[in-house]
Amino acid sequence: MTHSTTSARPAPATWLPVAAAAVTVVLWASAFVSIRSAGAAYSPGALALGRLLAGAVVLGAVWLVRREGPPPRAAWPGIAVSGLLWFGVYMVVLNWGEQEVDAGTAAMVVNIGPILIALLGARLLGETLPPRLVAGMAVSFAGAVAVGLSMSGEGHASVLGVLLCLLAAVAYAGGVVAQKPALATASALQVTTFGCLVGAVACLPFAGQLLDEAASAPLSATLNMVYLGVFPTALAFTTWAYALARTTAGRMGATTYAVPALVVLMSWLFLDEIPGLFTLAGGALCLAGVAVSRSRPRRGAVIARHDGEAGEAGERAGGGEPAPAPTGIRHEPQGPSRQ
User: pLDDT tens-digit profile of 279-332?
Assistant: First the structure.
């Protein structure tokens, strides 16, 4: 009976984080469609504040209903930093930067974010950089650039725009890496709710602009801003935090390279923007890179590596014979939630 209970419990941890990550990338991709409407009527700071306020209201209501209480003290540094960088700085400077550069330049600069996440995760969180992750991110980055270049038309770029997109990528990466330790002691809902509140407070200087622009903005733009707050922010950031708590920051960052491919598909379906062959090829590269980055070595290769390491340890001990593997170690299948 004990064995049956133990073997049945890991199953949700295997597919739920994958499903949560899928929800996140789909909703983040849909955000680009909504930003086209809202961004035409709202300035970058006002749009970020309106989006965060809508998200904070929804998250706060769910948090009160679930009665989870405030996050533990140990989680607050990570929540504060991620809220300031990712919910605050990132949203404002990305909205601003995309007004100053063409889509191709934005793709090349902003999409270094997942690469920075992997590097910072290795440096600050002690995460590994498996060859498959590095290769997959390289393929996906090439695909993201291809999608951006193919959809940019007559491109334009300013030094200010490039710097803003670079700042957005750095803020995004820093926010994710700061959020990861907070999830060790706080729930995904707590981290997302209070991170969103921190970002909203940081954006309060734009309150005057928000009120002025809301008075004259078309209803469709305001509804799109509310949608951005409820779904790509409140829901998607919560599912992101849930998945991030169960895998590495680098692997989660690589997953977001599926967003450009989904943007192409959604633009095709909802905006009647028929993609060219170069765009489709870029989207396929994005998805292929994500598949490579999330793939695992075969079970036999993992076991052989462990056995080889055990043998080397025994030889280093001076006996010349492989040391037996400790009896407490089990070679479990590697799922997306384990690293």
Answer: 778 778 877 878 887 776 655 444 444 444 444 444 444 433 333 333 333 333
* CA dihedral angle for residue 244, residue 247, residue 251, residue 253, rounded to 10 degrees: 10
CB–CB of 107/214 below 8 Å? no
- Enumerate residues 6+ apart whose C-beta is below 8 A from 286: 140, 143, 144, 147, 257, 258, 259, 260, 261
Nearest-angstrom CA–CA distance, 228 and 235: 10
pLDDT in tens, 183-239: 999 999 999 999 999 999 999 999 999 999 999 999 999 999 999 999 999 999 999
Rg (CA), the chain: 22
Q: Buried b vs exposed e over 169-204: b needs ≥16 C-beta within 10 Å?
A: bbbbbbbbbbbbbbbeebbbbbbbbbbbbbbbebbe
Q: Which residues contact 119 (CB under 8 A, 6 or more apart)?
A: 129
Q: Match 């005057």 to its residue by tokens.
A: 208
The encoded tokens of residue 237 equal: 């950031």
The number of residues in the chain equals 339
Residue 113, CA distances (Å) to 34, 138, 145, 167 in order: 22, 12, 13, 10
Place of tokens 């209501």: 61
Cβ(177)–Cβ(117) under 8 Å? Answer: yes
In which residue are the tokens 């996906």 written? 140
